[in-house]
Amino acid sequence: MVTSTLVKVFAGIGAVWVSRWILNITRFLYTFLRPSSLSRYHHLSPTGAPPYALITGASDGIGKGYAFELARQNFNLILHGRNKSKLLSVSSAIKNIYPDTIIRIVISDATQSGDVTLREINEIVEQIKDLHITILINNVGTGTRPSGHVFSNFESDDPADLDALINVNARFPIQFTRQILPLLFSHSQPTLLLTMASISEIGSPYLSVYSATKAFMKAWSCALAREFKAEGRDVEVLAIMTAQVTGTATEGMERNVFVPDARCFARSALGRVGCGGDVVEGWWSHAVLRGVMGRLPGGVFTGILTRSVRGEMGKVGKSK
Which domain of life is it from (predicted)? Predict the structure, then answer.
């Protein structure tokens, strides 16, 4: 009798485990094999104006990749950055391949805070308020401090470096989005709000403040998604998780199955649009990596993560 009951219990547990495994595999395949719904946001304004995508931090890396991919899909562009010459170079490169793309450039230093940043954001809104913006990509962000270092012991960090990290990774995107939302809502048609998060939000040693800002942005994005649903707004809010990508802070690494280049990552991330989730990895192997990490015992995971970060520190250096 007891043996029979135990068999039934273990059979039930096995059935639940297998069902969950099948569900996870199905969800993974659906997320990365289904066609993107990006075209849903390629619509004319009520007056017939063409759609624009606004990308922050578009002068390098993934932001630059997003610009090329959106131009390829016939969106006009508003490119934000703090270096005008870099933005002009990106604009020229895009126009050489996609000559019909209309591009505007807006300048603001996201590392600043306070009244200066708010004034610059207001100036940007004035420059683009006549455009039909259907997509906002909050891409601006960095783990590199103004002093030039990426990794550091928290107690040794310079206060100005900490403020700059918080400003560029959290304060600027929050304030910028708040000011841009009225433009996105003005046409009363589908809108996409995409925010770059990071696998570092798990809490990476020697990247404590950067990790915290990425966790903040992920939570903020999820909260906005639920808020807009509660308000009945036709806004897709998506947090894109990423790990290492070449052409960014890890540009010294070689491209491989776990480290795509920025353009490939951007194309893949845009492919996730319409997947139905609020948070999703932009690259398939990053999803696999995150899934494996989440199933490791805490001590094992901490050891692996620490060795990995220290390996990177050996390549690029640590401030203190």
Answer: Eukaryota
Show the domains of the chain with their CATH numbers: 41-316 (3.40.50.720)
Q: Which amino acid is at 213?
A: T
Q: Under a CB-based contact definition with an 8 Å cutoff, are residues 247 and 264 in contact? A: no
Which is nearest to 194 in space by CA: 257, 259, 242, 129? 242
Q: What is the pTM of this model?
A: 0.89
Give the sign of the dihedral formed by CA 173, CA 179, CA 185, CA 186. Answer: negative
Label the pairing between strands 279-281 and 132-138.
Answer: unpaired
- pLDDT of 79 > 50? The answer is yes
**Cβ within 8 Å of residue 183, ≥6 positions away:** 125, 128, 129, 131, 133
On the 0-12 / 13-18 / 19+ scale of CB atoms within 10 A, 97 is exposed
Tell the residue number behind the tokens 């946001």, with chain if given: 41
Structure tokens at 22: 């099948």
Give the whole-angstrom CA distance, residue 104 versus residue 161. 30
Least confident of 140-144, 168-172, 244-248: 244-248
Beta strand extents in the chain (DSSP E only): 51-55, 76-81, 103-107, 132-138, 191-196, 235-241, 279-281
**Other Cβ atoms within 10 Å of 32 Cβ, number:** 16
Q: Mean pLDDT score of the chain, rounded to an integer?
A: 87
Alpha carbons 254 and 20: distance in angstroms, whole number: 35
Q: What is the phi/psi pair of residue 142, to 5°?
A: -160, 155
Q: Is the dihedral of CA 215, 218, 221, 222 positive or negative?
A: negative
Output the CA torsion sign for 84, 88, 89, 93: positive
